[in-house]
Amino acid sequence: MPTPTCTFWAARNWEPWARILVPLSPDLLQRLQARLESLPDGLQAHIYRVRDVALELAAPHGIDLQRAELGTLAHDVCRAVPGGDLLKMSAELGVSVSDVELDFPLLLHGPVGAELLRREDDLTDHELYEAVRWHSTAHASLDPLGKLVFLADKLDPQKAAVYSYQSKLHDMALESLDLALLEFLSREMAVRFERGETVHPASVDARNSLILKLRS
Ligand SMILES: [Fe+2]
Ligand SMILES: [Fe+2]
User: Fold this and answer.
1) Pairwise CA distance, residues 78 & 108, whole Å
2) What is the Å distance from ligand 2's center to 216 Cα?
3) How far, in Å, CA of 114 to CA of 126, rounded?
4) Considering the domain 8-157, what is its CATH architecture?
């Protein structure tokens, strides 16, 4: 495999194995790469777009590029797993399931993915584990890397139709991960409240934590 480079902006048409741009732990990287190659093409494309967004946002916030890349490459390894299978895997892996997740099991693809990578692929880094685990709901304990992975996932350009305010969110994320995360959570919760839908308790806690932090 050629030595990776940091010219990520020129990498969009590379073969998947060549899109690993920042040197990482070789074992973890190889195992993760094998998982990515087994995913549906559309999901792989999403993951690499998210990686590109994360690399753009990482530098202004002093976040290590290797960790930004690994966190985003790892975040959706279980996104293609059906909800029923996620519930079975949660039981096998010891992942706790809340009532909200039982009602909408796809929310488990982050926690299940993180635990699978920890057990099988040597994902021992706590911050990376948490970033993968909470990338769908956020969590009050997320550090800058976790916030970056969460926001990069929502800033995939292909999701612009889903999030009409995506351009504003992108600009906010360049300035402040906290303000951008609060903006996203507030907007999405308002939509869910309006529709009478559930809100994951971790999202509520994360939003409360951000409001209190930004107020102080
Ligand atoms: Fe996801
Ligand atoms: Fe994703």
Assistant:
1) 9
2) 32
3) 10
4) Orthogonal Bundle (1.10)
Q: How far apart are CA 215 and CA 115, in angstroms?
A: 34
Residue 169 and residue 180 in contact, taking contact as beta carbons nearer than 8 Å? yes
Q: What is the Cα–Cα distance from 6 to 58, expressed in whole angstroms?
A: 13
Residue 40 — very low, low, confident or very high, per pLDDT cuts 50/70/90?
A: very high
pLDDT band with cut points at 50, 70 and 90 for residue 187: very high
Looking at the CA of 107, name the nearest ligand: 1
Domain ranges of the chain: 8-157
Q: Would the pLDDT of 90 be above 70?
A: yes
- pLDDT at residue 27, rounded to an integer: 77
At 14 the pLDDT is 37
* CA neighbor of 144 nearest in space, from 207, 34, 54, 208: 54
DSSP-derived letter for residue 14 is S
Q: How far apart are CA 133 and CA 149, in angstroms?
A: 10
Tell me, in angstroms, the distance from the centre of ligand 2 to residue 196's CA.
Answer: 25
| 27 CA distance to ligand 1 middle (Å) | 23
pTM for this model (two decimals): 0.88
The pLDDT value given to residue 180: 98
